[in-house]
Design a protein that fits this description.
single chain; alpha/beta; Aspartate Aminotransferase, domain 2; Aspartate Aminotransferase, domain 1; seven-stranded mixed beta sheet; globular; transferase; DegT/DnrJ/EryC1/StrS family aminotransferase; PyrdxlP-dep_Trfase
Length: 367
């Protein structure tokens, strides 16, 4: 079975060394030494001032919304994983969906401005597939209208824009360290800020709002454990190699697929990409479904990242009403992510590309 992704695992002996350390200290969670070490190494690797390692990539979105005191309307993307919309709804905000660009599937800054009202407090954008949004344009709009910017940068670890980690942009930026990501801690995530006071607030938010008997604020349990930190410490040194391995497989796909019949999203100029995903865009949902069926018949499991378009989710429209986003709605039914992970063999990639090419050609012949 070839899945759309596969988690990287380090040598078990390397992980066991950290387990032995945990057994000696009996410090399992609550801001332990391995967690603090991982935070330090992550800050150094990413070149950011403050980073809080948390339990997952969704809770950090919720923390960002709460920390910036966002309670009203937030302009966001309809083309993302559902966690983006869920976090807004969970925190009582109203998501206002701005349609996406047809070339890179990131939120379109030109669609943001007309949606701004007196109730707009923030922009929450996703760097889709690890490809940077129009960061400069979004920030210019935010500055003009005094809005906060939160980036769901779940896919971006190791990627850079204009020489800086994508996580360094926005008022707050979040990342997922789920097992399927380029860098992972099995489960986990982080929130990044360059503001000292905000970093302290987030530190307390992560742990019920207190440390020992010093109660500072409201808070939730967003802590992560020493076991997860240990996995991160094992995986982090391998990230450059893992990205290089992904790039090799990305290039094989590029060479094998017939782009006269399909396309893939364009990369933002100034990007240093992490090759987190390999999405392809078909001419219609019919073609996509035919390709999916052909791949699944060969025990190859692609994934519809991202489907459906979030603006049509019933629990979103209940709060926001119908907000048409035709470009996102079309993309959601035509985009398929093909298997992509560091040890995917060239032979398998060639087989996947052959199935895609032949199926698309056959559909064309029957039209």
């Amino acid at each position: 079975m070839i899945n759309v992704t596969k988690s990287y695992l380090p040598d078990i002996e390397e992980y066991t060394k950290y387990l032995e350390e945990i057994w000696k200290t009996v410090h399992l969670t609550n801001d332990g030494p391995l967690l603090r070490r991982l935070e330090t190494e992550l800050k150094q690797y990413l070149g950011v001032k403050h980073l809080k390692f948390c339990s997952n990539g969704t809770v950090v979105l919720q923390m960002a919304i709460k920390a910036l005191n966002i309670t009203k309307e937030v302009i966001t993307t309809p083309f993302s994983y559902v966690a983006t919309t869920n976090a807004l709804l969970w925190e009582g905000c109203t998501p206002i969906f701005a349609d996406i660009r047809p070339d890179d599937f990131n939120i379109d800054p030109e669609k943001i401005r007309p949606l701004i009202t007196e109730n707009t407090q923030a922009i929450m954008a996703t760097h889709v597939y690890g490809n940077a949004c129009r960061i400069d344009e979004i920030q210019a709009i935010a500055d003009e209208f005094n809005l906060k910017v939160i980036y769901d940068a779940a896919h971006t670890f190791g990627a850079k824009y204009n020489g800086k980690s994508i996580l360094s942009y926005g008022d707050l930026s979040t990342c997922s360290f789920h097992a399927t990501k380029v860098f992972h801690t099995v489960e986990g995530g982080c929130i990044v800020t360059n503001d000292d006071a905000m970093a302290e607030k987030l530190h307390f938010y992560r742990s019920f709002g207190h440390k020992n008997d010093d109660y500072r604020s409201i808070g939730i349990n967003a802590k992560n454990s020493e076991f997860h930190a240990a996995m991160g410490l094992c995986v982090l040194p391998k990230v450059p190699e893992l990205i290089a391995d992904r790039k090799k497989r990305f290039d094989i796909y590029d060479n094998q697929l017939d782009f006269s019949r399909i396309k893939r999203p364009t990369l933002m100029p100034g990007m240093e990409y992490n090759y987190a995903y390999y999405p392809v865009v078909f001419e219609s949902e019919e073609v996509l479904l035919r390709v999916m069926d052909a791949l699944i018949a060969q025990d190859i499991l692609p994934r519809r990242y991202f489907y459906p378009s979030l603006n049509i989710l019933p629990f979103a429209t209940e709060k926001t009403g119908v907000q048409p986003c035709p470009i996102s709605e079309e993309a959601a039914i035509c985009v398929l992510s093909l298997p992509m992970y560091p040890d995917l063999s060239e032979e398998v990639i060639e087989r996947i590309a052959t199935i895609v090419n032949e199926t698309v050609a056959l559909v064309d012949e029957n039209v």
